Amino acid sequence: SRLMETAREMTRESLPIKCLEAVILGIYLTNGQPSVERFPISFKTHFSGNYFHHVVLGIYCNGRYGSLGMSRRSDLMDKPLTYRTLSDLIFEFEDSYKKYLHSVKKVKIGLYVPHEPHSFQPIEWKQLVLNVSKMMRTEVRKELEKFARDMRMKILKPSSAHSPMKERPRGKSLSPRRRQGSPQRRACRRDKS
């Protein structure tokens, strides 16, 4: 809800933004399109002894994948909705990084972002984390396609949905009971100066 307010302000002010703000703006601009599923895709790359992080908004619509984003490199942001599989989209990003001598170390994929603009559900940024530098492409493809299939079937739920809050009965404490033999806490702390 707060991020959507920030996105509204970004459109009013037209200030320069970076990749993370572009993802939030992409979510905001696609909120009214329920047929478009959106999810974050993060990359960790290595170049010349340094690590770099980048994030785009993955898009799934009508059986095709694409992305929205912001980068100084045109092939590291928007990708058209033409990729038949999630792995095809990820491998396209990996190939684009190679052009700039970056090696992709990790790819993190989050869950679908809800279309409700006033939702208080946090964005799940890294539901699937792949250490692609230590995996064969066939393994990466297998993991990505299993994840994509589960997401399309809406099997994967945010971590907050896995463990709902327990109702606390009135007058009961959730902390473990103090055993009789336990020493009582001191009322004041000793000054250690």
UniProtKB/TrEMBL annotation:
Region of interest (Disordered), ranges: 155-193
Compositionally biased residues, Basic residues: 171-193
Pfam family membership, one: Vasohibin
GO BP of this protein: regulation of angiogenesis
Listed InterPro entries: VASH1
Active site: residue positions: C19, H54, S71
Example of a GO cellular component annotation carried by this entry: cytoplasm
Descriptive protein name: VASH2 protein
Gene (UniProt): Vash2
